[in-house]
Amino acid sequence: MSNVLENIKMKAASMNKHVVLPEGEDARVVKAAAEVVKQGLAKITLLGNPEEIAKNNPDVDLTGVNVIDPVTYDNTRAYAELLYKAREGKINKKTGLPEYADVDAAIKGVLKDYTMYAALMLKAGDVDGLVSGACHSTANTLRPGLQVIKTAPGINTVSSSFIMVADRENKYNPDGVAVFADCAINIEPDAQQLADIAISSAETAKNIAGIEPRVAMLSFSTKGSGNDDKFFKSVPKMQEATAIAKAAAPDLKLDGEFQFDAAVAPEVGKLKAPDSSVAGNANVFVFPNINAGNIGYKIAQRFGGYMALGPICQGFAKPINDLSRGCNVDDIIAVVAITALQA
Ligand SMILES: CC(C)(COP(=O)(O)OP(=O)(O)OC[C@H]1O[C@@H](n2cnc3c(N)ncnc32)[C@H](O)[C@@H]1OP(=O)(O)O)[C@@H](O)C(=O)NCCC(=O)NCCS
Question: How far is CA 245 from each of CA 34, 195, 249, 259, rounded to the nearest angstrom?
Answer without folding.
Answer: 41, 5, 6, 18
